[in-house]
């Protein structure tokens, strides 16, 4: 089993990477999907041969409650239809943890279930919060499960100044699903998954 990296340097590097993604100009993104709940864009990833996705939408709730539903914890498994199990493997101070989770099959099981082990970190950002993560090569890979890898990912959630009780939620996701998959299937799944994430989250916040 690999040793866990020190949480503080990893958290700092991860935050800086996400802030850099957040400053990428609009002209570098290409539209991927648009629904009533969210807009999804993409651009070639700097980390691997797939895409970095950006998703954005307005969510009717306060920042802290939204982020509590997204970050590792009891809420996430209740509402996120893609996540089928989640275990916190290690907990550090400063809102850091390592979690192992599995995802459901997608696209009529063309994409089989996946397992991920992610370092997760939640911190303040401007008037709101940033919850971010990156996969680690840590822990034994379970048999009959493909281990995927999340390159730096995260969600910025900031209150809307002109709409009290509403927040702007912006996500950056770049997931390497691994295994033998056609890239077109991965791209279709990613855009739809991100759009559905917003509609599922909104439903959960209203209950």
From TrEMBL:
A Pfam family of this chain: START
PROSITE patterns given in the database record: START (PS50848)
This protein's encoding gene: Stard4
GO MF entries: cholesterol binding; cholesterol transfer activity
Protein source organism: Aegithalos caudatus (Long-tailed tit)
Gene Ontology biological process terms in this record: cholesterol import; cholesterol transport involved in cholesterol storage; intracellular cholesterol transport
Lineage top rank: taxon: Eukaryota
START domain boundaries: 10-207
CC annotations in GO: cytosol; endoplasmic reticulum
Protein's name in the database: STAR4 protein
